[in-house]
Automatic annotation (TrEMBL):
Example GO molecular function: delta(3)-delta(2)-enoyl-CoA isomerase activity
Keyword terms: Fatty acid metabolism, Isomerase, Lipid metabolism, Lyase, Multifunctional enzyme, NAD, Oxidoreductase, Peroxisome
Record-annotated 3-hydroxyacyl-CoA dehydrogenase NAD binding domain positions: 287-460
Keyword Lipid metabolism: yes
Entry superkingdom: Eukaryota
Protein name, entry field: Peroxisomal bifunctional enzyme
Length: 704
């Protein structure tokens, strides 16, 4: 798992051998111990170069080992031995040096890197800290502020950025291993351990805690770096180990590591018809049409252009098109600057003629959420585009199969549901209808990947996965307010759980009128009416009544909260709302009761989770990982909780079932509190680990 050869006469070249990313498995660690010992004791070896095979230095500790019993030599003594070697050791970094991979490089005396290589300490995103000396060596090399930034965010750097920060000694665009060998031949013996004088950074802990939303790893990272600033190296290393011990077996670490693997699982999509990622070849796409340049269309255009695609952007009116062009240019420039990428000129052509998309390979429709308008557009597109052009809709809930039926080639129609702002948000729901061809799904998934999205393939139903699950969650929040909670009580409970924003603050931000429009389209809104049963089930008219008063949220300066002015973001409790709620409850004969955060969490989250089980049972999502990634990347579900389905597995499925039964007895008029039969089935199968749910879902069962 690591090989030693002698090159250029006196350089011992150690290669890590563990494809695909040379993770530091037990065998690799043992390989490093053996090869370093041999190289150091060989009198013909004057210096050592460590590299990874196949153009990747090292992707860090083997994450798969974390779940089980760890065996083999630990990293810390291995890295200490390398650092203490009396022959110069040079790391030759190609591809990636991440986590334990970068810590290995930091223990070497010199580092030479390929300019495009990715370097970073992403342990925090796995619920851990760089506990193989990373929190002690990096601050001593580049200072506390820069080290804190890298260790608490886990962000990756390019080789060029790493040189600027002083993490590496040389960057090359040539063969990195050859450059490192040349470097090793040129340096005298003795090592280059940099020991900066460090001082603490005031105020950092407060900032990190605030942005961590309850995640414990970023806080431990700060504590470890603070130890580097205040303690001698050996004691700092001990502190690092103690902090790591508190994180290693934590539920948060398990959740975050589950997210790491789930993100990769969802790219291996499958559908109930049997089509799969590994048997469906995507169609090559170089030119894409975007129809409708409102907020979504503009974001999609930017995301496509940044991915290097040619875009034909269409808007109906000249004036709106000009406004969109101006906005898109600004967004492109800002995003490119932030990401440090250069723009290829003239990638976007604007037009007011639909015919402009006649020669593209794929069209993304992003017009208003109005079925009649979309029907007409799909009919037109089907006639004017090339026969094999894929037609995609950015609808957030409408029937993809119905849209497909308006075209000559329904197999070429899929949904591509982006999330606002579309050039920033990582999630893409790719929605297949019963007639969508596997190649159409594969092409949309591949396009999402090129745009840097986490793409999740889901089946066709109202609201797909994300918005369908959101309905019961939002409804429960309104029911709780009817029963006695305030928007602040509900939001505080959800924010303490880890959501960046509670239901009501989020609703104020996105606009109460958005949901009002959807409810109107579903025939649920009865202007001026207060009835609490509609279409045979409990209904809360509170949101409609606020909209009737012109309270649309932040944009009107009042909604569930009060704002200083229209557009302001600082939400304050509104005394008017409190009296309005009291009057409402009195008129409805509702007796207000005290509602605590446990009830808020259970009612909102278990309703959401229950709908997730229904979705799994219906085959709309292939597995719990799909739902979890949709919620983590699209809806702000705290990543350190793993997503709603993983969270349910952590709470215990029997407990979730029992609480749903309890609430259903109290509220028999709320159908979404009726426990899903899949949840019952999983509980009666002994609540298996989440990784086994797919087997149970697929098992034939009787609904009797
Ligand atoms: C204990 C002391 C403290 C140290 C802690 C650490 O180091 S914590 C670690 C800190 N390090 C990190 O957090 C880095 C995590 N890794 C990455 O960020 C990326 O994989 C990459 C940038 C290295 C390559 O990106 P890319 O798009 O080219 O490739 P890809 O992402 O598709 O992966 C290909 C396959 O490799 C698998 N796999 C990958 N890494 C690991 C691993 N460390 N382990 C095990 N497996 C790993 C991955 O699951 C996938 O498997 P599949 O699905 O084919 O069965």
């Amino acid at each position: 798992m690591a090989a030693l050869t002698r090159v250029s006469g006196s350089v011992g070249l150690i290669s890590l051998l563990n494809p695909p990313v040379n993770a530091l498995s037990a065998a690799v660690r043992q390989g490093i111990v053996d090869t370093v010992r041999r190289a150091v004791s060989d009198p013909q070896v004057k210096s050592v170069v460590i590299c990874g095979q196949n153009g990747v230095f090292c992707g860090g500790a083997d994450i798969k080992e974390f779940g089980g019993h760890m065996s083999g030599p630990p990293l810390v003594p291995i890295f200490n031995t390398i650092e203490a070697a009396d022959k110069p050791v040079v790391a030759a970094i190609e591809g990636s040096a991440l986590g334990g991979g970068l810590e290995l490089a930091l223990a070497c005396h010199y580092r030479i890197t390929q300019s495009k290589a990715r370097l970073g300490l992403p342990e925090v995103s796995l619920g851990l800290l760089p506990a193989a000396g990373g929190t002690q060596r990096l601050p001593r090399l580049i200072g506390v502020p820069a080290a804190l930034d890298l260790i608490t965010t886990g962000r990756h750097l390019t080789g060029a950025e790493a040189l600027k920060l002083g993490i590496v000694d040389q960057v090359t665009d040539q063969n990195t291993v050859e450059a490192a060998v040349k470097f090793a031949l040129s340096i005298p013996s003795g090592c280059n351990i940099c020991r900066l004088h460090l001082s603490e950074r005031p105020g950092v802990m407060q900032r990190v805690k605030k942005s961590a939303h309850g995640a414990i790893a970023p806080v431990a990272c700060v504590q470890a770096v603070q130890a580097a600033a205040t303690l001698p190296f050996t004691q700092g290393m001990q502190r690092e180990q103690e902090l790591m011990a508190t994180l290693f077996g934590s539920g948060q670490a398990r959740a975050l590591q589950y997210c790491f693997f789930s993100q990769r699982v969802v790219s291996k999509w499958s559908s109930p018809s049997g089509s799969r990622w590994d048997t469906s070849k995507p169609k090559p796409v170089t030119k894409v049409g975007v129809i409708g340049l409102g907020t979504m269309g503009r974001g999609i255009t930017v995301a496509l252009a940044l991915a290097g695609l040619s875009v034909v952007a269409v808007e109906t009116q000249q004036q709106q098109m000009m406004a969109a062009q101006h906005a898109v240019s600004g967004m492109l420039e800002r995003t490119a600057r932030r990401r440090g990428v250069s723009l290829v000129g003239d990638q976007i052509r604007y037009s007011v003629e639909l015919e402009a998309v006649a020669d593209v390979e794929l069209v993304i429709e992003a017009v208003f959420e109005d079925m009649a308008l979309k029907e007409k557009l799909f009919k037109q597109l089907s006639t004017l585009c090339k026969a094999d052009t894929l037609l995609c809709s950015n609808t957030s809930s409408l029937d993809i199969d119905h849209l497909a039926s308006q075209t000559h080639s329904p197999q070429l129609v899929v949904g591509m549901h982006f999330f606002a702002p579309a050039h920033v948000m990582k999630l893409l729901e790719v929605v297949y209808g019963p007639r969508s061809a596997p190649q159409a799904v594969a092409t949309a998934m591949e396009l999402g990947k090129r745009m840097g999205k986490v793409s999740v393939a889901v089946g066709n139903c109202s609201g797909f996965v994300g918005n369908r699950m959101l309905m019961p969650y939002v409804e429960e929040a309104s029911f709780l307010v009817e029963e006695g909670a305030s928007p602040e009580i509900v939001d505080r409970a959800l924010e303490e759980f880890g959501f960046p924003m509670g239901v009501f603050r989020m609703s104020d931000l996105s606009g109460l009128d958005v949901g009002w429009k959807v409810r109107k389209a579903r025939g649920l809104v009865e202007p001026g009416q207060m009835s609490r049963v509609r279409q045979g089930r409990r209904y809360s008219p509170l949101g409609d009544l606020l909209c009737e008063q012109g309270r649309f949220g932040q944009k009107t300066g009042r909604g569930w909260y009060l704002y200083d002015s229209a557009g302001s973001r600082e939400a304050q409790p509104d005394p008017w709302l409190q009296s309005f709620l009291e009057e409402y409850r009195a008129r409805q004969g509702l007796v207000s009761r005290r509602i605590d955060s446990q009830e808020v969490l259970e009612r909102c989250l278990y309703a959401l989770i229950n709908e997730g089980f229904n979705i799994l049972q219906e085959g709309i999502a292939a597995g719990p990982e799909d739902i979890d990634m949709i919620y983590v990347f699209g809806y702000g579900f705290p990543r350190h909780r793993g997503g709603p389905m993983f969270y349910a597995s952590q709470v215990g499925l029997a407990q979730v079932l029992q609480r749903l039964e309890h609430y259903q007895q109290l509220h028999p008029d709320i159908p979404h509190l009726r426990p899903s039969s899949l949840l019952r089935r999983l509980v009666s199968s002994g609540s298996p680990r989440i990784q086994r749910w797919r087997e149970i879902i697929r098992m034939p069962h009787s609904s009797l």
